[in-house]
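Protein 1 of 2
SEQ + STRUCT:
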Amino acid sequence: MGAAFSVLFLLHHAKPVFAIETHNLFQHHGAIMLLIDTETGQIIRANQAAVDFYGYPLDALQGLLISQINALSSDQIRDEMAAAAAQNRNYFIFPHRLANGEMRTVEVYSWPIHDGDTTKLFSIIHDVSDKVAAEAQLLAQHAEVEALVVERTEWLVWVFGVAVLLQASIIILLFFAVRQRKQFLARLSASEKYNRALFADSRIAQVVINPISGQFRDCNEAAIAIYGFTSRKDVLGKTPLDVSAPIQADGTPSEIAAQAHIAHAKQHGSAVFEWRHRRPDGHVWDADTHLMLVEHQGEQLLLFSLIDITKRKQAEAALQETLATLQSQIDMAIQKTREQDNIIFEQNRHKSLTDLLVNLAHQWRQPLSAVALTLQEIDDEYQALIPAEQLEPFRATLDRGVGQIMSLSETLNYFTSLYESNETPTLVNIAEALKQGLTYFDIKYYYDGVLIVESSGLDASLELRARKSDMTEILIEVVQNACTAAHDQRLETLIITVRGSRLESGALYIEIEDNAGGIDQSILPVIFAPYATTAFKERNKGLGLYMLKRIVEERYHGTIQAGNTQEGARIAITLDNLSDANLTP
């Protein structure tokens, strides 16, 4: 019964890789199983055993309401649920109507199953009509016997009252009384045999314990089989500890747990629990155990039944493992999504900063022009007031100021033309792009040593149809990473060697090497992944090379590779001419 519940649970919640096997287990299981919508009462799933029992086709059965099968009214159903609670039963007894109109008495074991926001009721049905009829017959026989005893006793009293007058009649009546007594004893013996059959022939393992000695006093064939023995003599005389694992599933020693369950059954009349057993061959198995206190011929005994739930426990463990795996996959997907969100955020932030720089450059042009004009006015106004011997130094100072302003203006023009979003592809000279980028690259921000850029191996005529800002950003990003590494290594002199050539395919090949000690082997395989650097938690760290890789591969259909030399790192880049189709922002 527990295994069937786990099968249905997996059928609704497991991944598709388990669904086919789980469906087959549910569909062909020997027990009658139904899955009911708790809100509508509609039967939404039924297995083949249910189809065979109720006599409906599968499609018709799965469309019925449970109220069309259960013959009790709502008030009667509530009364049965209250009776089950009072009798400490985990099942309900209902009359069910078959397709042919026949009424059958069934025991219904039900559990709620939560599927997302909905709840369904999983029910296992046992046909106990024959058992109920037998019990009713037994009760009727007992009542008949008791009535017969009372009747005959009263009659004998009356006979003895008139014994003096009717001695002859008494002898005859005693003869009939003896015969009736023999019939009564015969019926009583037959009744005991019937009770014995209910115990001995049951397919559910049942064992009787002497509560004083703790030894097994009786058992049925199902108990012999479930314990792994071959005969009753192997079972009788043993104690629960002889067939139990030393430690229960919750870590409690079996001896302590057994004492607690027996004490509970003696005090409350019954106890229901899971118990871990061990067979003679060492195999460990788990069972649902129902322990109850019974009285037989004035003697109190303990009777318990066992249902093997090992497969159910294994299925539950497999389910938990599957859920853990799924949770791990979900966590990984969430982490990946967060990383992608961070990348998009940094891309937008980079574009916003670029737009801000361009706007600032435009805003600075007018003040710079005003300063230059002011210097020119100072020259015109004060040259007649300054002595001739001081005029030349005065003009030299003004000229230097004007030169600084012109240099700053050219820098602003360069950044404006470099990062304006409407930049169109042109033939970019690689050597000039490197030289111009180094001119505006603030090396002291990244490295306080001596920087030597060796570009003699770079063909001065090497050109590529590209955005000038792309070429500058590609080259300077690699130089910046080399400067950061040299700073970390406390290198006094950083030498960067740049080479470039045209491949036979027409693509451009650029190779940049440094002497800054190389790339950490643990980072090298993922150097171009987002946040691959050891300082990934700092803002703006770990995205530079990733963005560089995207520009090279997506915009210029090229490749970028990183490796180490004996002295430092080597970055190899191939680039194709930029086409109008690849003019992405």
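Protein 2 of 2
SEQ + STRUCT:
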Amino acid sequence: MNPFYLSLCGDESKSLKLQDNVLNGLTPFRNYLSNSITAFKDKEVTCEWEALAQQQFNIKPKQNIYQIVPLTRIRLINPDKDWYRLNNADLDDDFEVDLDEPVTIGKGKKSRKIKVTDSRVHNDFYEIKIEYSEVITSIVWLGYTITLVPLSLTVINTDVVIVDEKRYSIDTCNDLVIDLFGQLNEKEGTAKLNNLTVKFETIKTFSDSKLATHVKKDVANWLVLSTKTPNYDCAKIEDITARELKNLTVESLFDSKGKPLKQSDWEFSLNNNNVTITAQHSNVTKLSHCSLGTYPDLEFDIKEENTKDQWIQLIEPINNDDSGLSVLDYFFSENAIILESNQNNNREAFHVIKSNSEEKQLLLAKSKQTKQQSVLPLYKTIKAKADISQLLKQQDAISALTSAPHSGHDGLLNLFKDQTSKPWQHTESEPLEQDKWKILTDIRFKGCLEQRDFVQKALATPDFAILDGPPGTGKTTSILELIVQLVRQGKKILLTASTHAAINNVLERIDNKELDNEVFALRIGDAHNAQGLEHYQFDNLII
């Protein structure tokens, strides 16, 4: 009898049953870890290397990219201005309209009498006209206390205006004067708003005849290159330089001959609006001119940088192993230990500052303490050993859970209990208000409601909320929304995954969704697996 399980369960039969469930449930994982540790324990590969002489350039756009979103300002004509419908439930058969009798609004000292200027009957409802600067919700009139329903048009920013079957979103609205996204050519006409047909007149619209040079049409918007913020009437203007540069790839840059740069020749990183581009080998032509394929008129300042980085190129051995992998792949595997060919102590391993797995190139430091100072190995041959420390830690964790669990493991152990005898606690989730959603904002997208349901359940659960699904079903998007909501509750989040790529995927979404004003992320792990995400790397944020 295991005393740890007996202490947790308090009953001999229950503790035996739970222990058997845990052992049976975790056996496949124990076997997997044991086989992996055996396979990688003594695995070791070697290769030769050669030093790379690298060129590095800093390129910065001379102009900014501005998005010009055309607007049209219209005035809706309100035929029911100042009209109100009387609630029939507040009236009886003796009620008769008397325009000579004023209505009373407000109470006590703030009450006042206002004249009713007109009346009518529509669809068996009394309707009256009261000209007053504020919306009235109830009146006292002819001895009756009556609830009023305003018939005047009201517009909010989330409404959509339809003209000639084309939908226009609203930028701003001031009473019935609204700015629509897009250009309307009609001086006047009819539009649909909230299933009502209303007349409108155009006050003014954006004129593209006043656009400057270096202009590009982007669907319904315009893109302008300028050294300063342009000024256009009836338009929404946004500097999108940083956003456009985030989408850069090496192949989107062109050299002086109009040919795209090659991924095999160059690597680049982005810091604000500055792009650093580094040659991947010594055979590339010096970069003297650079243009962007999507913005051929955008000019760049190019400055050659002095780099002290000492990259090495790994050389493929003539005799490869029979695993189907390149021997060099072992140098770029998760948690690989890289040593001089004559070293065996893992504590003497190199620290990988950066790596390029496609080109089989490494930037090494002597240790984590000197990780900013790249070095060349002393010997012509280096070797890679598999790091099984993480596998051993997982093995220890499973052993602790199967042999000596404690009260802190209750949540995990409950997953192995028979649900017919101890069903999982049902947790009621509170629905978030529509304006509280940050990522899952559009319920028209397939799966959005299911994603919201998971986030709400995860926020309410005291222990585990499990989301399962194949790639592309929105798991990362749901996790990102959950992170935002937890941060808004003032909580700290530890995000873990079995691969660096999974963590990087979430961090990239934080960048793409521009969430850095809400989410302060720290990435813990080897920096060479954080290419493009160095600004989140814990090591780089230590002052």
